[in-house]
Structures are given as C-alpha cells and as structure tokens.
Amino acid sequence: MGEETPALPADLGPVRSALIEWYERSHREYPWRRTEDPYEILVSEVMSQQTQLGRVVDAWRGFLERWPTVEALAAADRADVVGFWSDHSLGYNNRAKYLHEAAGQVCTEHDGEFPETPEDLEELMGVGPYTANAVASFAFNDGNAVVDTNVKRVLYRAFDVPDDDTAFGRAAEELLPDGRSRVWNNAIMELGGVACEKTPGCDREGCPWREWCHAYQTGDFTAPDVPTQPAFEGSRRQMRGRVVSTLREYDELPLDGLGPRVRVDYAPDGEYGREWLRGLLEDLADDGLVEVDSADGTVVVRLRR
DNA sequence: ATCCCGACCA
DNA sequence: TGGTCGGGAT
C-alpha cells in the first residue's frame, strides 16, 4: 500500500463554508465569472493557462467580440486566430490552434452542443484534466475538483498533503462539497492566487483557513517546487514567435527574406542559416502554424490558413 | 530573474 | 516522465 496521507480536518463543514463565504465576500471580479456559456468559459480558461489574469481580460472581450460563438470560431481561418493571439500577446500560439481545433470538434462531432462532462470535454484538443473540470464546473456546475499549481500549493501548506499528484487529487476531491463545483473550484483557486501565493498574505487577505492551516501554525510556508523555465531571451521559443509575427506582416517570404528578420545574425550558410531555419520551420509546420512551399526552386513560407 | 488558473507528444 | 511551447509585467 501507499504511504499514509495526512488526514484533512475531521469536520469539513466549517472548512468548506469558511472558504466559500470568504470567496463570495471578497473575490476579484473577472468578466468570465459572470457567464455560464461553456464556449466563453473555455476561451477564458485556455487564455489563462500560462498568462496572468489581468492581461487576459481585454483579450477575452476582444476574442468573443470577433468570434461570438463556437460556430463562428470554427469557421474562422486559423491564421486569423493565431494572429489575434499574437496581437494580444497571449503567448503559446499552439493554444490558439488547439482552441480553433476544439471549436471544430464541437461543431462536427457534437453538432454544436458543448460536451458537459469532464470525460467528454477532455476529448477536445488542448483540453486536459484541469481545463475539462474547469469548464464542467464553471459552465455546468458539474465538475470534479480542479488541481492546478494554486490548489497544490494550498493543499500542501494548509493540510500538509505530500507533493504527489495522486495525493493532491485525493485531497482535492475529498474537500469538494457535493454539487458545488462551480463556487468551490473558483474559491480554492482564488485562495491560492490571492492569499496563498508563493509569498503568502494570510492576515493581509484574511485567509479563512488560518485556524486549520498547518503552515500558518508552524510558520513553514514552503511550497511545492515548480519547474523553472529556461530563459526566454535567445530561446527557440522566441525565434518561433518572430517567425509568426514576421509572416503576419509579410504574408509570404522566401527563406533568406525571413531569416534576417528572425535573427539579425542570420547568414544563409552560417550556424544560424538556411539549415537552422528549415528546422525551425519544420517544427512550426508540424504544429500546423506555417506552410512551406517549394515551388520551382525557391522556398516560400507563409502562415497556414 | 521569476512568475503566470497546463497540455501535448515522444 | 521529461522536453517543448511566448511574452509581458514585476
């Protein structure tokens, strides 16, 4: 058998109502917290995956203004969706591609009706365990417990749950009040995002769990390790971003026209030359973001539509 | 430098 | 299980 997991408080009633009351009293207002439209929720969740919420608000409004329904998004050109993503600095163009593809799935495989269960939602491209439960919760109030980095940090500190995904999942499920996934998942993530950040603000934010919190009692606010990303400056990701933004501006370019706009030190036969650029473009083509055409001897690159 | 409501693919 | 995927704000 596995190791013993620490017990949550015996009576979960007061723990649950304390958090829900705290949330309803003092949570931040975000526009997606005022809708139950699964399409609008999905857009907000995908945008929020690795981007600060404050930067998502304008993008979310603009996106829904341009593509108000899942049908409208499915009918859009992928290049336009990726273009919007870049314009609003949302990062990770793959997420725009996934969202566009998921919209197509909803229209063709589900007849335009959004799936409502976490299991069915996970079939959508780009929708993993977190996003599936988030949409099921916030749109249909019918999700399981979400486990993201915020929730892990909260459980680790408050209830001494070991840094282990299975343990986090079990503890999160046990805490979730039956039939209240909408407010609960919002609340526990809000707690992690506002009061129980890397540097905690227990008293400042009036954390509702102080009387039960292991970390608050011991003063040890260690948090689970989050893998640190390699530097962005000079990275392959930065170069991919430059390819996409350059192709948006020029529609299509030959290899040696694109190269210098991606790296100032581009030299056709140098270390960062045609061969390097072809490799970069091959990955972008595999990701469905660009097209590389070899017509009559010359290679031309453009964004995929 | 580090953070930010993950998911995909090998 | 690990490598990869953007970019702005602080």
Automatic annotation (TrEMBL):
Highest taxon listed in the record's lineage: Archaea
Protein name: Adenine DNA glycosylase
Keyword Translocase: no
Record domain HhH-GPD: where: 47-194
EC class: hydrolase
Keywords of the record: DNA damage, DNA repair, Glycosidase, Hydrolase, Iron, Iron-sulfur, Metal-binding
Coiled-coil ranges (or none): none
Reactions catalysed, as given in the entry: Hydrolyzes free adenine bases from 7,8-dihydro-8-oxoguanine:adenine mismatched double-stranded DNA, leaving an apurinic site
Pfam families: HHH (PF00633), HhH-GPD (PF00730)
Cofactor(s) the protein needs: [4Fe-4S] cluster
Keyword Glycoprotein: no
EC numbers for this chain: 3.2.2.31
Alphabetical list of InterPro entries matching this protein: DNA_glycosylase, HhH-GPD_domain, HhH_base_excis_C, HhH_motif, MIG/MutY
GO-annotated biological processes: base-excision repair; mismatch repair
GO MF entries: 8-oxo-7,8-dihydroguanine DNA N-glycosylase activity; adenine/guanine mispair binding; iron-sulfur cluster binding; metal ion binding; oxidized purine DNA binding; purine-specific mismatch base pair DNA N-glycosylase activity
Family: Belongs to the Nth/MutY family.
Organism: Natronomonas aquatica
